[in-house]
Design a protein that fits this description.
The protein contains twelve helices and 20 strands. By secondary structure, the protein is α/β, with parallel strands linked by helices. It binds flavin-adenine dinucleotide. The site of flavin-adenine dinucleotide has 38 residues, from helix 1, strand 3, strand 15, strand 19 and helix 12.
Length: 439
């Protein structure tokens, strides 16, 4: 059966996917003078950076923190995107180990007083933390987190704590394979400048990024799922239902598997290989909205002998109505764990019982996301860390680029999406200039 096709206008650059990577790509390509069309399959933009309003509780897709000194914030700022919010503190926070809570060793005094570490562990940790700010992390790129922790300290308590801090700063729970160089660099970034919890949730960033892209001339279409991308001698054709979008370049700003699924031929082979190679980091997320927070001074806890995190995000940023509280809990899922959502949820509830006793009587909102992809491509030691990630240009296929948190050699987490989006947008726009000059 043949479908009647309504051909939409042609663009220089077609961006598929309206998360942070796609919006960054669209804004940068449009700013560089290209005509840009962005297609997003969902009704709303933002992907994993979107925020859901549930009775005044503003729920990100799991706990989200923007790295204050990261490349993502630099990119946002250059696009005129504000990052309003608050900076969390580990003061008054807890380290959870052996089924009890200990003072979190986030500073000199708390390190002295915590019952988490033995005296020799405290001395060792103080030494590691003192060397970290000046440390060149590149020699650790091809070492795993487990190997690096053993090099940095012979004390097993300190090694365990370092692995927990890496989970906290990278969301990676694959210590035997994850690149230590990038993990330590990210930990340095966290210790040096901390993070921002964004007022209104990350939708605040998404809304402004869209505005930046549109102000630069990009057309943004949501509710438009691209089923197939064809590359031929004339250019690119993207098929979405009855519509065909033509362009000189395409930026696939989706997950690696979605990008592969939408393509055929040699392009499909390359993208399929990249998708098979990418190791995701996964998390179970539990968000609890409270009538009021039982222990207002206990805002943070990190599991040391279990991969658990919890933080009262509403204590730092505007994410709930006055007086209400929003706690975001997470379990960093490891590569070998078999999925057991009920157990994961119960472990997070048990952590809440320790840190916020009485929370159960205050609960008025709950959302459980059993298996979220935090990033599609965790930097791996055997590939040399971020330097081993693919793209943005797809070799052997003119005019095709990828962007996302699995692409390119800059940054971690959302910073990678924004940075690869910038690079892909600039490359696609410069190709348009070259094609135009040759014509
Ligand atoms: C639980 C959790 C916690 C996180 N915490 C942090 C944090 O603290 N700090 C941090 O920096 N990062 C964090 N992240 C990571 C961050 O959210 C992501 O890296 C970032 O949002 C990914 O953006 P993206 O554009 O690359 O991908 P996505 O947001 O996945 O966007 C891809 C878009 O493509 C669309 N799409 C897919 N296929 C098609 C198609 N065929 N046609 C049209 N559209 C399509 C999708 O609908 C989606 O909107 C966290 C992520 C999670 C899940």
């Amino acid at each position: 059966m043949t479908h009647a096709r309504s051909t939409k206008q042609a663009s220089d650059v077609l961006v598929i996917g309206g998360g942070l990577a796609g919006l960054s790509a669209a804004a940068h390509a449009a700013r560089a003078g290209a005509s840009v069309t962005l297609l997003e399959k969902a009704k709303d933009l933002g992907g994993r950076a979107s925020t859901q309003d549930r009775d005044g509780f503003l729920l990100n897709q799991g706990a989200h923190a923007l790295y204050k000194g990261g490349v993502g914030r630099t990119i946002l700022s250059a696009l005129g995107v504000d990052t309003p919010g608050g900076i969390p503190s580990t003061a008054g926070g807890f380290a959870l180990a052996g089924g009890t809570k200990h003072t979190f060793p986030g500073g000199f005094l708390s390190l002295l007083s915590t019952g988490l570490l033995s005296w020799s562990g405290k001395i060792d940790l103080a030494k590691v933390l003192a060397t970290l700010p000046r440390m060149d992390t590149t020699p650790y790129d091809r070492l795993s987190v487990t190997e690096a922790a053993a090099r940095l300290s012979r004390n097993s308590e300190v090694q365990q704590l370092l692995r927990a801090l890496v989970r906290l700063s990278t969301y990676g729970n694959d210590p035997d394979r994850q690149s230590a160089g990038d993990a330590l660099a990210q930990l340095k970034l966290a210790l040096d400048q901390n993070v921002i919890y964004i007022d209104g949730g990350w939708q605040t960033l998404v809304t402004q990024l869209r505005e930046a892209a549109v102000a630069a001339g990009a057309t943004v279409v949501s509710g438009c799922r691209v089923e197939r991308v064809d590359v031929n001698d004339v250019g690119i054709e993207a098929h979405a239902g009855a519509d065909v979008f033509h362009a000189r370049s395409v930026i696939l700003a989706t997950g690696p598997r979605e990008a592969a699924d939408a393509t055929t031929g040699v392009l499909n082979e390359t993208l399929r290989a990249w998708a098979d190679d990418a190791v995701p980091s996964l998390a179970a997320c539990l968000d609890i909205g409270l009538e009021s927070v039982p222990e207002p001074r206990s805002n943070f806890a990190l599991g040391i002998d279990q991969p658990i995190y919890l933080s009262v995000h509403s204590a730092v940023a505007q994410l709930a109505r006055e007086g209400h509280g929003l706690i975001q809990c997470m379990k960093y899922l490891g590569p070998t764990e078999s999925a057991d959502p009920t157990k994961d949820e119960q472990e997070m509830e048990a952590a809440l019982d320790l840190v916020q006793p009485g929370w159960r009587g205050q609960e008025i909102q709950r959302r459980f996301l059993p298996k979220m992809v935090v990033v599609h491509g965790l930097p791996m030691a055997d590939r040399g860390g971020v330097a081993g990630r693919p793209g943005p240009a797809v070799p052997g296929t003119e005019g095709v680029f990828v962007a996302g948190d699995w692409v390119g050699s800059e940054g971690m987490l959302a910073d990678t999406s924004l940075a690869s989006g910038r690079r892909a947008g600039e490359l696609a726009a410069s190709r348009r200039a070259r094609v135009a000059a040759a014509a």
